Amino acid sequence: MGSYPKTQSGKAGPVLANKKATFYPVIKNNHSGQYMPTPTRADMDVVPLEKRAPWNNTLRGQYIASYIDSYGNPNWDWSGVDIHHVIQESTGEETVSLICIHYREPFTSNRYLHGGQATKMKIGGVSMILKKTLQALKKRLDEKGNMEIVAEQGEIHTVHCSFNPPIAGEELKDFQDEKGWILPEDVQQFLSKHNGAKMYEMLLGSINIGGGLQIYSLEEIKKTHDALKSLSDYIPIGYVFENNLLISRTALERDDPDYLYISRTLLKPEPLHSNLELFLDRFVVSQGSNFWEWPNYTAKNYYKQSGGIETSY
Fold first, then answer.
1. Which residues touch 243 (CB under 8 Å, ≥6 apart)?
2. pLDDT of 209
3. SS3 of 137, please?
4. Which long-range contacts (CB under 8 A, 24 or more apart) does 81-90 make?
5. Knr4/Smi1-like domain: from which residue to which, for each copy (predicted)?
6. 303 pLDDT exceeds 70?
């Protein structure tokens, strides 16, 4: 690893110069003050490590210290430095992503890294949440793609999930070039795994009666967008419980990670305050329920709604 230089903090770290590193300039003041209040510089360095390299807070500190020694500015505050690593799905290679910004408050790194357009920093590999959610769901399915779930009000249902083959990388690029869109990173990641999917479709005996969540293929995205002319400011990416699942193009232009909206037919879309990755995670955790509507129901009004449990009080 080479010698360990000292930083102003007195911590030591391995010399990054001994590694073949690529230095990427990334987002510069494209976010609101909540995330990056007028940073003077925002850069990232990706450093390949040996596969399955040990990882702990000590190593985090060493790489941060080394990064500051190599590229740092004495005006940068330590609270504005963080380090992240991912496992590249294709090779299993572990990489370290170092982010340094001029910021004197704790950086909300998880939301930043997982938030829609913010992931254009090219950290490599699929998001761990998206990958783990899909893996966990598939493990629950039998050989036919079915599983039993406990639904609301104690009901037990059998549901079906199916996943299309992945989209070719060049086909996705051609699609985006044709439409003039840049899809959010987590949407691209999903399509690179599965060019469309249907999850939590209800089974009545052996008959699939539909429902649940559908994530569109590229062709379905194109056809649905052409059909929903009154929603031209949105990109349809799915359908859930008779609602359109939409990407707000305005949110993408603002680099807003909460780009996901929902709309019943042609009504005004409502924000879900989420992206596709988090929506899928919560949809699976809630066992295919319309979890986004739960805050609308209280103990006072739930039992008066259609389908509420009858009580004696």
1. 262, 263, 264
2. 94
3. helix
4. 82/107, 82/109, 84/109, 84/113, 84/123, 85/49, 85/55, 86/123, 86/124, 86/125, 86/128, 87/125, 87/128, 88/124, 88/125, 89/125, 89/126, 89/131
5. 166-261
6. yes
Residue environment code for 12-30, b if the CB has 16+ CB neighbours within 10 A, otherwise e? ebbebeebebeeeeebeee
Nearest alpha carbon to residue 279 among 268, 270, 290: 290
What class does CATH assign to 128-291? alpha beta
Tokens of 178: 């044709």
Pairing of strands 270-271, 260-263: antiparallel
Q: What is the pTM of this model?
A: 0.60
Helix (H, G, I), strand (E, B) or coil at 234: strand
> Which tens digit of pLDDT belongs to each residue from 76-133?
443 444 444 333 334 444 343 434 332 233 333 332 222 222 222 233 334 678 999 9
Instruction: Return d(Cα 39, Cα 28) in angstroms, integer.
Output: 7
What residue spans define the domains of the chain? 16-121, 128-291
Q: What's the rounded Cα separation, in Å, for the pair 112 and 274?
A: 13
Nearest by Cα to 162 from 217, 205, 218: 217
Closest CA to 72 of 106, 36, 102, 107: 102
pLDDT digit string, tens, across residues 174-202:
999 999 999 999 999 999 999 999 999 99
Tokens of 63: 């790489």
How far is Cα 20 from Cα 22, in angstroms, rounded to an integer?
7
CB atoms near residue 210 (< 10 Å): 12
**pLDDT single digits (tens) 11-41:** 333 333 333 333 333 333 333 333 332 223 3
